[in-house]
Amino acid sequence: MTATVTETVRTTVRRPSYLVFSDVDETLINTKSMFDFLRFRLVRRHGDEEGEARYRLIARQLRARSAEGTPREEVNREYYRHYTGEDAPRTEALGREWFAQRSAGEDFFIGPTLAALNGHRAAGADVVLVSGSFLPCLAPIAEHVGAAHVLATTPLVRDGRYTGEVAEPMIGNGKRAAVMRLLADHPGVDPHDCYAFGDHPSDLPMLECVGNPRVVGGHPEMMRRLRASRDSATGCAVACWSMGAGSGKADPCPGGCALPLE
């Protein structure tokens, strides 16, 4: 692994027909991986009671910073400062334990998103996970869904331990920049043919990079942007944008409502 935001999960000479970018937390999985893994790590190290207390303190501090208006990029950096001095290979191994335990539950993955990504891969697309989380959480998820690349926040490592700093928060405009770089690395792929899945306004910079954005869930701001994009959005369009019909390129929406985000 290199200290960049792009992690290639598999090597292939096949050229993808198009790219499908997907946020992870609450888009592909039903939890916030960074917080869930933090709790898992602290409880494993300190026991149920003390570990839970430590987790709640850190989570409360980070959420308070966000509520104060601290940019999400800075909150993302603050999260990783809690890993200062942690052994990186050990954290990666713990991430696989976390995934094995959590993914054993039936509700870990969001079914419609997972099905859509599988459909796109079958149609010749490369799936790209894009997340402010880090590889200890994301690598096993990427392997499970067959993702070709992961664009993630990458903690810096020195002598096998995290320094507490990151290369680039994969949040907001960081997502846009990383997606644009990967698109530039695929000159034969038309961005208008590509798809992106997200659930939160911080995903909008990523969704705006492709011709076929898809919104997972019903976040009010995301739905407002949907309605603003087309004054006469049909019920079919709203359904598609909220992960109904038409999520797979191989099985297009019968209503032809693939709306670009404007």
- What is the SS-derived class? alpha/beta
Main sheet record? 6 strands, mixed
Report the total helices: 10
Query: Mean pLDDT, as a whole number?
Result: 84
Strand order of the largest sheet: 1-4-3-2-7-8
Total strand count, please?
8
What ranges have pLDDT less than 50 throughout 5 or more consecutive residues? 1-5, 230-262
User: What is the general shape?
Assistant: globular
The ordered string of helix (H) and strand (E) elements is EEHHHHHEHEEEHEHEHH
Percent of residues in beta strands:
5-15%
What value does the Rg take, in angstroms?
A: 18 Å
Q: Distance between termini? A: 36 Å
**Quaternary:** single chain
User: Which bin fits the share of residues in helices?
Assistant: 40-55%
Would you mind describing this structure in some detail?
With 262 residues, this protein is α/β, with parallel strands linked by helices. Helix content is 44%, strand content 13%. The chain contains ten helices and eight strands. It has a six-stranded mixed beta sheet with strand order 1-4-3-2-7-8, sandwiched between helices. The chain has a two-stranded antiparallel sheet with strand order 5-6. Helix 8 (204-207) links the parallel strand 7 (195-198) and strand 8. Helix 1 runs antiparallel to helix 2 and helix 4 packs across helix 6 (135-145). It is globular. Mean pLDDT is 84; it is low at 1-5 and 230-262.
What are the salient characteristics of this protein?
262 residues; alpha/beta; 10 helices; disordered N terminus; disordered C terminus
